[in-house]
Amino acid sequence: RLSRRGRTIIFSIHQPRYSIFKLFDSLTLLASGKVLYHGPAKHALEYFSSIGYECEPFNNPADFFLDVINGDSTAVAASKDDHGPVDTGKVTEDNVDSSVVDVLHQKYLSSSLYQSTKEALGKVELGQGSKQRLSKQEHEITYANGFFTQLYWVSKRSLKNLIRNPQASIAQIAVTVILALVVGAIFFGVKLDRSGIQNRVGSLFFVTTNQCFSSVSAIELFIRDKKLFV
């Protein structure tokens, strides 16, 4: 339901089963910082078959791809006609065969999938190049969205938190009202003379100090939301 409302949903799935894998539209395989496949998920098995890696019957495609990347020849049925099994070189600390990764990466770079992706990216770059050039300072991108966009959404989220947790807001209002009555009672009826001016300065100092210390409670937001961002 969330995705149909236009939200982006990100799942972290470890070795998904076939019933989950067949729901994937696009598949990207990465190893050691290199792209080994990027394209439609339903064409992934066909692509690996074309480069000499046949998925055994009843084998989970997700497990099959991991076996290929890790150089596990016992679970991979390599074609013996045109493509021999890739020579297993030195295995890295991350349990990924570096020679297999290099070979698969080079095969992907020479595939039609890579060429079509490169052409699509080239069109995007040309489209961006046709726009007016901004100054060096304006062209420098630090965030995905501008300041006012960030301010709008953060303010909206904070407002929702206040509405959904009315107890904290009521408590803050009550404390503020009580302190206002106390300060007003202490400095009530001061005269317009030298001592009155000093009393007013004292009241302003007390109110300012109270506001500064009350704002320290905002640190709780960073502590609570830090886990969410991490």
From TrEMBL:
Family per similarity comment: Belongs to the ABC transporter superfamily. ABCG family. Eye pigment precursor importer (TC 3.A.1.204) subfamily.
Species in which this protein is naturally found: Pheucticus melanocephalus (Black-headed grosbeak)
MF (Gene Ontology): ABC-type transporter activity
Residue span(s) of domain ABC transporter family G: 14-74
InterPro entries referenced in this protein's UniProt entry, alphabetically: ABC2_TM, ABCG_dom, ABCG_transporters
Bilayer topology: Multi-pass membrane protein
Subcellular location: Membrane
Pfam families in alphabetical order: ABC2_membrane, ABC2_membrane_7
Name of the protein: ABCG2 protein
Cellular component terms (Gene Ontology): plasma membrane
Primary location recorded for the protein, binned into one broad class: membrane
PANTHER family: ABC TRANSPORTER G FAMILY MEMBER 28, ATP BINDING CASSETTE SUBFAMILY G MEMBER 2 (JUNIOR BLOOD GROUP)
Keywords associated with the record: Membrane, Transmembrane, Transmembrane helix, Transport
